[in-house]
Amino acid sequence: MTSSAIFKDKIHAVFVAEIVFYSLAFLVTLASFARRGKMTSIKLYLLLLISLKLAGTSLSLRAAVQIVNSGDGTMSNGTTVLFIVGGVLTSVASAPLIRCTRVLLPSLPKKQHPDQPLLERLLSNLPRLTLIAAIATSAAGYGQLSGSTSTAEKGIKIVQASSILFLAGYLMLLAAGLLAFKTSHSDWPPIKLYGVAIAFPFFILRFIYIIISAFSLTGNLLEYHKFSVLNGDWRPYLGMFVVMDFCIVIIYLAMAYIAPPSDSREPSSEKRKYFNRYV
Q1: Can you tell me whether residue 147 is helix, strand or coil?
Q2: How much is the pTM?
Q3: 121-126 contacts: CB < 8 A, separation 24 or more?
Q4: What angle in degrees, to the nearest 10, is found between the helix axes of 77-92 and 126-143?
Q5: CB atoms closer than 10 angstroms to residue 259
C-alpha cells in the first residue's frame, strides 16, 4: 500500500485549522499587550510558541500536500527537508509552552546556600537545563532522519530521548514551583496555580502522543503508523495533540489577561524568613 493511499486528506484540514487558530491567537496575544503590566513575560512566550507552531504547521502541510500530489507516494529531497524542519519547529514549540507554565509558578531562589536542601538546589536549575537538552536533542535527532539508514536510526533514538526530556523538564518545573510555593511563596496568587492545574491534564495527554509518535518512527519516514504526523491516522493527532495544544493556549491566554503580574521587588515575610534560614 502506498503512502498516498494511506495518507488521509482530512489531516490537511487539521493543519489548516491549526494555522487559523494560531493566527487568531497571535492577534489576540498582540492585542493583550494593550493591558500594560499584565503578565508580559507569558505573552512573549506565547508569541514565540505561536510563531513556531505557525511555521512548523505550514511546512508540515506543504510536505503532506507534496506527498499526495506526487502520485507515487514518494518523498523528494525537498519534501523531506520540509517535513524535518516542520518537525523540529513543532517539537521545539514545546519549550515556550512549558516556559509559560514557569511564569505562572513561583520560583526557587537562584542564589544557593551550603545548607540549602539538595532537592531545592537541584530543582532550581535542573528544569531549565533539561529543556535546553530537549531542544538540542530534538533538533539534532530530526536533522539526522534524512541521512543513511544507520544515521536515521541514531536520529530516531535521539528524537525519542528528546520527547522524554520535554516531559521530564515539565514535571521537574512543576515540582520546583510546588516546592517554592510550600517554602516561600504561600501568598502566590491562587489563580495562577489554578491555571497550571487546569492545563496539567492537557499537557500530559499531548506528551503521551509525542512520546508514542517518537517511538513509532522508523528509518522509512513514509512507513505507516497510527501516530505518524506525516501519514498516520489524523484522529489521534487531532484529539491527543492539536486539541490539547489549543486548550493550553486558551488557558494561558486567559491567564495573560486576568492573572496579576508577579511582584518580585518586595519579598514577602515568608520569603524573607526562608532566606534567613541560610544567612
Answers
A1: coil
A2: 0.82
A3: 123/172, 123/175, 123/176, 123/179, 124/176, 126/172, 126/176
A4: 170
A5: 19
What is the per-residue pLDDT across 166-225, written as a single tens digit (0 to 9) for each?
999 999 999 888 888 887 777 888 999 999 999 999 999 999 999 998 888 776 666 667
Could you say which DSSP state residue 225 is in?
A: -
- CA 11 from centre of chain: 21
Domain boundaries, the chain: 3-274
Backbone dihedral region for residue 72 (phi beyond 0: left; psi -120 to 50: alpha; all else: beta): alpha
CATH number of 3-274: 1.20.1070
Distant-in-sequence contacts of 246-249, Cβ < 8 A, 24+ apart: 246/21, 247/199, 247/202, 248/97, 248/199, 248/202, 248/203, 248/206, 249/21, 249/22, 249/25, 249/46, 249/49, 249/50, 249/97
CA distances from 187 to 37, 241, 264 (A): 19, 34, 12
